[in-house]
Design a protein that fits this description.
By secondary structure, this protein is α+β, with helices and mostly antiparallel strands. It has ten helices and 20 strands. It is globular and about 65 Å long. 45% of the residues are buried.
């Protein structure tokens, strides 16, 4: 039933990183009053989303950004993944996927986070129906039966400038340590993988061929993805002490170590980029909705970067929520029934992707006798089974058949 109690906004999105900004952009053409609260300018060197990392986008995510009108603007910044090569260090098995096997232009695309942030925020600044508060810090959230009251400081650190706003629905896109999730009383399980991801980029002697590599080692995973301009991005997961040692190496010594572990598949590695380190854990909220609240992205689930599924899952969450809010326009967008429909619609995909990434890590880290041989026989079997390859290629669209209109 429509609620006539006055509020400032229909939807308040807390967090303007990749997921929050994408949701705001998806809502821009609706007859909803939308607020986006972000603490740091997207082009700032200190922004936690739009930094030196890159993101692998599946074909479902490409479809979302095509629909939102920013994909063509990213044309010079994206690198298509034409094939994927999976192997385990010291073992004989491997598996390959190729886009042409499935009549696809690409299995996925790699885009620098800064480029994606640039286009998302350029489109948002031109959106007439999205009000942006930035820089703004959320300092308090209070949930009431008919609204959510949020206190924000327009200038962080100036409590005298704090003001209160109200909304029908608050969307938490504010990261793994989400203050909104905590305020909503939604508990989250956090499993430390005991690993740190070292992220950087590098060049090679020869031209790239659009191959993405996922290599499992005794200490962790090593992913190498193509970037525009012939460079490659590296996500190297290892125990914290190993990551600290790698971070401390001079560039030449680091490149020699990378060459030793990764091999010569791409030729000689050179021209190392800036290095960053990020602790890895599996965080999963017990629920993705609460009283007049929805959790998106890392606020709902933060995954291991293996197979590059985390952001794509969060974007599909945002696409589904945007569709439900569009259908509910003119009614109470924070009503329990709508939020229950969102949680039900996203359960299969959310659970499936989480189990898939977590299972991969634990499978390849299992050092019990015989498991290594079994894994490699499994890789070889996968390599000659077209139905298994097609199932994995479809992961780009998510688990289950309940796809939002933006993804379709």
């Amino acid at each position: 039933m429509h609620n006539d109690a006055p509020v400032d906004y229909d939807v308040a999105i807390v967090g303007g990183g990749m997921v929050g900004a994408s949701l705001a952009l998806a809502l821009r053409g609706l007859s909803l009053k939308v607020l986006l609260v972000e603490a740091v300018a997207p082009d700032s060197a200190t922004h936690s989303s739009f930094d030196d990392r890159s993101t692998a986008l599946g074909n479902g995510s490409r479809q979302v950004y095509e629909t939102l009108g920013i994909w063509t603007k990213l044309a010079n910044d994206i690198a298509p993944i034409q094939r994927i090569h999976v192997s385990e260090s010291g073992r004989f098995g491997f598996a390959r996927l190729e886009a042409e096997q499935f009549a696809l232009a690409a299995l996925g695309y790699v885009v620098p986070n800064r480029a994606l942030g640039r286009e998302l925020w350029a489109a948002l600044r031109a959106a007439k129906h999205v009000h942006i508060e930035m820089p703004a810090k959320l300092t308090h959230v209070a949930f009431e039966p008919e609204r959510v009251c949020l206190t924000i400081e327009g200038t962080p650190g100036r409590s005298d400038l704090a003001r209160e706003i109200s909304a029908r629905l608050v969307v938490a896109a504010d990261g793994a340590s989400s203050p909104v999730r905590i305020a909503a009383g939604i508990e989250a399980e956090n499993e430390d993988y005991g690993q740190t991801a070292l992220v950087t980029s590098f060049a090679v002697d020869g031209p790239g061929d659009g191959t993405a590599y996922e290599r499992f080692t005794a200490e962790g995973t090593l992913a190498v993805l193509p970037l525009p301009g012939g460079r490659h991005t590296l996500i190297w997961a290892s125990p914290p002490e190993t990551a600290a040692r790698l971070m401390a190496l001079e560039d030449d010594a680091f490149l020699r170590e990378l060459q030793r572990v990764f091999g010569w598949r791409l030729g000689r590695v050179r021209e190392l980029g800036k290095r960053g380190a990020y602790p890895l854990s599996l965080l999963r909220a017990q629920r993705s909705v609460g009283v007049r609240s929805v959790l998106l992205g890392n606020a709902s689930q933060a995954l291991h970067p293996v197979a590059g599924q985390g952001f794509n899952l969060g974007l599909r969450d945002a696409a589904t929520l945007a569709e439900l809010l569009a259908d509910a326009s003119g009614s109470d967008v924070g009503a329990p029934g709508l939020l229950e429909r969102f949680e039900t619609a996203r359960a299969t995909d959310r659970n499936g992707v989480t189990r898939f990434t977590d299972g991969l890590i634990k499978l390849f880290h299992d050092r019990r006798p015989g498991f290594g041989v079994a894994r490699n026989l499994g890789l070889l079997l996968f390599d000659v089974l077209p139905p298994a390859k097609r199932a994995l290629s479809n992961l780009s669209w998510g688990f289950g058949s309940n796809r939002s209109r933006l993804v379709r």
